[in-house]
Inverse folding.
């Protein structure tokens, strides 16, 4: 028969809580004065207020931390990280995503030198990290040479030329061997002949900028040449202003004036023409002459008024329609003839002060 398990707490173990309660009941009651009771009550109130303040601060800190954590979680869910945001691309990632077409190779022709150098500069600008070292630039240019230019580059490699480690020296040698020595002279001739003409000021400025970069002119000469090529209408406004010293400021000012002139022309072109009540007042000389010419082509032969010279009877008054017709055609209001007016009409024989043609 297995032994009976022994209880952890024996039955005869006295209960300490009961004994403590009995001792408190048996303890003599101490009497407190009213002052002590008041002080004890104030202490209890202070302790309770401190405990409540600590609990409120703890609850507020916990709620604030939870709110901040919740806001951060929501922000992370709404906005992806910078590396995952397709609209936040750095310059290097943008240039890496754009694949430039391979540049055409240069065979040493002088006429193709400028185009080749421009294409190389575009690659250098598009990948600054790749072409940070001079050696990479020189190697890239050398790999795009053929024919005579490739033979020249191989001679530099064979002689271990110092210009293979210095890009500026390499470009000087390359320019001396394959560029057009008279290119600057040609560009200066082109920039002297560059005029605005019927183009807008912005189109003229774009061509002028391209020539100015290769002309070798200083800023004073460029400003002078640019102003000489502008149209007279723009110069009429510029001449009353203080001319800026830089080329870019003059270009911006000329473009702004040209745009405002174009706007003014559009406003006046769209204006409806109101006919004048004065028959002698024409819109302009051109419209008057064109109207007279077109009307004279379709009008019937002029029949001059027959006047009885013997009786010298004045003719009757003209109708308003006939007056308007003679005004439009420039005919005499008395006889209907052309080339004179009623004041100078030779067929007007009756005496008296001549009336002016109205």
């Amino acid at each position: 028969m297995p032994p009976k398990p022994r209880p952890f707490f024996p039955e005869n173990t006295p209960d300490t809580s009961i004994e403590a309660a009995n001792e408190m009941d048996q303890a003599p009651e101490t009497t407190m004065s009213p002052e002590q009771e008041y002080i004890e009550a104030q202490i209890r109130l202070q302790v309770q207020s401190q405990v409540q303040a600590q609990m409120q601060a703890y609850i507020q800190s916990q709620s604030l931390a939870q709110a901040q954590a919740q806001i951060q979680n929501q922000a992370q869910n709404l906005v992806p990280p910078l590396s995952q945001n397709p609209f936040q691309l750095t310059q290097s990632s943008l240039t890496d995503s754009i694949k430039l077409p391979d540049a055409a190779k240069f065979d040493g022709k002088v006429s193709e030198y400028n185009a080749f150098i421009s294409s190389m500069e575009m690659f250098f600008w598009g990948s600054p990290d790749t072409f940070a070292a001079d050696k990479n630039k020189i190697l890239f240019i050398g790999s795009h040479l053929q024919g005579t230019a490739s033979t020249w580059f191989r001679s530099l490699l064979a002689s271990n030329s110092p210009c293979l480690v210095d890009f500026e020296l390499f470009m000087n040698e390359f320019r001396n061997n394959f560029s057009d020595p008279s290119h600057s002279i040609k560009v200066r001739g082109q920039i002297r002949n560059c005029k605005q003409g019927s183009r807008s000021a912005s189109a003229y400025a774009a061509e002028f900028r391209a020539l100015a970069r290769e002309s070798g002119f200083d800023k004073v000469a460029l400003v002078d040449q640019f102003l000489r090529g502008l149209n007279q209408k723009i110069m009429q406004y510029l001449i009353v202003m203080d001319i800026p010293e830089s080329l870019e400021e003059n270009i911006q000012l000329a473009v702004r004036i040209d745009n405002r002139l174009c706007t003014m022309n559009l406003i006046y072109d769209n204006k409806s023409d109101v006919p004048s009540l004065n028959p002698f007042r024409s819109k302009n000389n051109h419209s008057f002459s064109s109207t007279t010419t077109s009307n004279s082509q379709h009008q019937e032969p002029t029949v001059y008024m027959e006047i009885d010279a013997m009786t010298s009877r004045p003719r009757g008054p003209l109708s308003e329609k006939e007056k308007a017709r003679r005004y439009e055609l420039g005919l005499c209001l008395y006889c209907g003839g052309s080339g004179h007016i009623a004041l100078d009409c030779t067929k007007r024989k009756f005496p008296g002060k001549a009336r002016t043609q109205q």
Q: What stands out?
A: The mean pLDDT is 74.
